[in-house]
Design goal:
18 helices; elongated
Length: 345
């Protein structure tokens, strides 16, 4: 297990897997994720590493030591399952090195830590890459939908339901796993709630980088081009992409102007989906506090490698360098339509 951990940690740091590359990610972290996915009488979905060792393991061994058959059976089952858990996490992170989908989910999206116990258990059961029965998507795709909708867009961290599912996945059938995961997504972020949330201020959505990269790939496909290769995605990540406000957070003109009637009108619009795009960090610093037309005239957006920002630049340029509140609203509608289709249930 320690050999597995060392390799997991090395790959996580090399490929910028946000959770694994953190200093506080240790062998104990994997042991705690395993505990969340391991049915037991001392179950606690919010357990710490100390709880796993002191309350679960020590007490369980103490209770069973008077019956050597039970003791041996427990030790055998627990250590084998824990080893499989380490091995399964290693199998996942190895795919980050070779598979674009895994790289996007674990290195760009940054999968929520709360989903790791379930993801690892699914890999251990060889279900992660398998298609679910109701749609032509895999269990990994369903995990991505849960993360984008619930943990990133909703902005809270439902723990109990997803932890119990991770625990039960060891013994239940795949159709029940599928049903419960879809039910979880619908309960916490169904289509209507997903849409209404995206219509409001979403600047704090930590999944926006991933969303815009997926939108970029849709533009590439519409143009008849191939999606990003793994090396393309690594190069993109190396630019430290940021979320850019098209209309700056600090107003740079007087009202009424560009469809805004007042300062309050402007403030209520700037964090909406249609006023955001993705931009390399180096270019974002050059765009600070400029108006949309200044960013086009100064060739800030035209230098971006992102297709959606390139398209935005062309649209503004073709409209006599004009960009208004109406354009923000139209772009918001377009982006929401994309999200509802891309992460649909």
């Amino acid at each position: 297990m320690y050999h597995y951990y060392n390799e997991i940690k090395d790959i996580g740091e090399e490929y910028s897997i946000n959770l694994i590359s953190q200093k506080n990610f240790t062998e104990d972290s994997i042991m705690r994720y395993h505990f969340i996915a391991y049915p037991n009488e001392k179950y606690d979905y919010s357990a710490t590493s100390d709880y796993v060792l002191d309350v679960f393991l020590k007490n369980t061994l103490k209770v069973k030591k008077s019956n050597l058959t039970e003791l041996e059976a427990f030790i055998d089952d627990y250590t084998k399952d824990l080893t499989i858990f380490f091995e399964s996490l290693l199998a996942i992170v190895k795919k980050v090195k070779t598979d674009e989908k895994y790289y996007k989910i674990f290195s760009l999206l940054g999968l929520s830590a709360l989903l790791y116990p379930l993801v690892i258990r699914l890999e251990a059961k060889q279900l992660l890459g398998k298609n679910i029965s109701s749609k032509a998507i895999t269990f990994l795709d369903l995990i991505e939908i849960a993360d984008v909708r619930v943990y990133k867009t909703r902005g809270t961290d439902p723990t109990r339901d997803i932890s119990y599912l991770a625990c039960d996945t060891k013994s239940i059938q795949e159709d029940e796993i599928e049903s419960r995961l879809i039910s979880f997504i619908n309960r916490f972020m169904g289509d209507a709630t997903f849409k209404s949330t995206l219509e409001n201020n979403i600047y704090g959505n930590v999944g926006l980088k991933h969303i815009f990269i997926e939108y970029d790939e849709q533009i590439l496909k519409n143009r008849g081009n191939s999606p990003y290769s793994l090396q393309d995605l690594i190069n993109i990540n190396n630019t430290s992409p940021t979320i850019e406000h098209i209309f700056a957070q600090e107003v740079r003109f007087n009202f009424p102007s560009r469809g805004f009637g007042s300062d309050e009108d402007y403030i209520s619009t700037i964090h909406k989906f249609g006023n955001l795009t993705i931009l390399e960090k180096s270019l974002n610093s050059k765009a600070t506090n400029k108006t949309p037309e200044q960013k086009v005239i100064d060739n800030v957006y035209s230098k971006s490698l992102f297709k959606c920002t390139e398209s935005l630049n062309a649209a503004i340029k073709n409209n006599s360098n004009d960009f208004t509140k109406d354009d923000v609203n139209k772009r918001t509608t377009e982006l929401i339509k994309f999200c509802l289709n891309r992460w649909s249930l």
